[in-house]
Design goal:
The chain is mostly helical. The chain has 5 helices and no strands. 15% of the residues are buried.
Length: 95
Amino acid sequence: MKLWETRPGALGELVERFTAGEDVALDARLRYVDLCGTAAHVEGLGRIGVLSAEEVARVRGALQALWDEGFEVRPQDEDVHTAVENALSARLGEL
């Protein structure tokens, strides 16, 4: 689900194509940077005790696997950050 979507399928396809345009293709170019930013955020959450050392290691491993596998940003993800979040949630469940 997209971050701004209140219920699945709420936004019409035509409206989404108009507002998103080529955003997904452009965001795909930001995959590495977003993975690095997410890794840094996870490290910070570990330092302040929101995530345990084990959770940090699990997320870092999943981020590396996403990079190694070359995950895709799909139109249904909205953007690269949501694609990363959706992929992590699918792999790790809720932490």
